Amino acid sequence: MKRLTAMTLLLSGAMLLAACHGKSAVKEPASSASEVPTNAAAGGAGTTMTPLGGGNSGSLQAIAQAGNDAPLDQRTIYFDFDRSEIKPQYDAVIAAYAKMLTANPGLKIRLEGNTDDRGSREYNIGLGERRAQAVRRALMLQGVADAQITTVSYGAERPAVEGDNAAAWAMNRRVDMVYQP
Amino acid sequence: MNEKSRPFALALLLLAGLAACASPAHAAFVVQITRGQDTAIPIAIVPFAAPPGASPFDVAGLVAQDLDGSGRFKSMDRRDMIDLPHSGAEISFDDWRRLNDDYIVVGGMTMPAPDRYDIAFELYNVLTRQRLLGYQIHTDTAGLRLAGHQIADKVFQSILGIRGAFATRVAYVLVLGHVPHRTFQLVVADADGANPHVVMQSSQPLMSPAWSPDGKELAYVSFEDKLPSIYVQVLKTGARRVVSATAGVNQAPAWSPDGRKLAVTLSNRAGNLDIYILDLATHALTRVTHNPGIDTEPQWSNDGKSLYFTSDRDGGPQIFQVPLAPGSRPRRLTFQGSYNARPRLSPDGSQLALVTRVHGKFRIATFDLQHHGGLRVLTHGRFDESPSYAPNGAEIIYATHAAGRGVLALVSTDGRVQQTLISPQGDVEEPVWGPFGSE
Predict the structure, then answer these.
(1) With a cut of 0.85, is the ipTM above it?
(2) What is the mean pLDDT of chain B?
(3) Which CATH architecture has domain A2-180?
(4) At what angle are helices A91-103 and A121-141 packed, to 10 degrees?
(5) Is 0.90 surpassed by the pTM of this model?
(6) For an interface test with B, which of A130, A157, A165 has the most B Cβ atoms less than 10 Å from its Cβ?
């Protein structure tokens, strides 16, 4: 579990870098199917924010390299089955993203809502959108401008991991926060 | 009226080269009959006579395969045939009766010109020696497969009184590769899975294909711009156009019975999904639902005067119906269970097929619209979804999982016959059965 967490965080940092270079393809870390989603906030480390100079890629690289266990490296929020409420364990993640986005009005973020692949596909689009909107509202409540946020729902169409088991479903019920070039 | 639209909304895009990459996708499905009918009707399909130099295509073999695949017939093994008659005059009825066949099909091909075929066939009742059918089909080499499906259709209808649907097509989404490097293909194939053609391919999700009532076009959702848009594509030419690309959700297209409108699901800035009607000629949008819940998966009634749809306005997803007359209020139809979604109307309008959750398992059920009785659960899987009626109403095709892969399955509307269609590769999703005449 611990090793997986470390790998997730390393990969998250790499993804943040990738996002800065204009690649918006979402890549989830490969996961052994028995693992449930890991949560950076559970590591308990405080925010290690590096001042940003206008949101260019160099600064973002600095952030990514500065602290591998910072909440900003957690780019995914996971949800319970058929739910769209953000669990309290993600408060630090939301706060960190809100802080960075308010400090850098030029930064844009896309919230990608996803579900597990059970049930009706089109209804799942609705559920994914509801999850993305929950994160959008949470960010706006902390001062992020509406214009900095776009949402999209992929429903069950872009799973993070494959598999017909509870661990895979838990990894797929999520909102990915993706920086926009 | 919908107030927002992306600037390129409704632009006519003729991406024939991209969209019409109509290439054979893969070999046909392998059919596994998982649950047959005890009362399958014994029938002999005698190999057809063929002149020297004729195509080796086995028309009679395809007829037998179609009828067996329906689960309602059991065709005789050719090795057990003691005689190979090609016309009614050659049939020794007493022999076939002793072999326990109820019916017999005989026929033969002639070639009046190069690449031209005349296929004559007859259907007899072995017991009464009565001729039930006698037809001649004119075709070419490329049309022999279709001719076989048409013969199976005639035999099916003559014996069961139900129009056959073998000479129709299905559309489905085929997902190749593995996360995160997947390829999405929109495929159109014969109803038995043969002749698959990729009509659209993308590295981003494709979903919700919907046949136009005349079978000439498909509407579908594509995420090729990272955001969802609804396209309409002409199958013959591959020409396609964006019909809905509003900010937010553009989903769940459903054709009106006259083919002039699409019911679609759109969202507002707050992410609330509601159902609208899009006039394909004028691009005018008319809002149908006004509710903070998820309203989606519209489906037209046969008279075009109301929509069935999924809504979670009362908590979990349930099926509702709303008349399209102004000021009409939606009425909830389903009350059994906590999850009922994706309604699809039977061709005669008497029932809905839908996805229901039973003890945590997702299954296909029917709901009787005339008597508003309970749900009738037809399938036994854990991940059954996306039901679609055959145009004759006799069967429902749907998607499910087998050994961790997405596969297609069929169930007869009475629940007695079940089949799984295993594709050679990838995950098959969202099958949609085309209308009669879509070949």
Answers:
(1) yes
(2) 91
(3) 2-Layer Sandwich (3.30)
(4) 60
(5) no
(6) A157
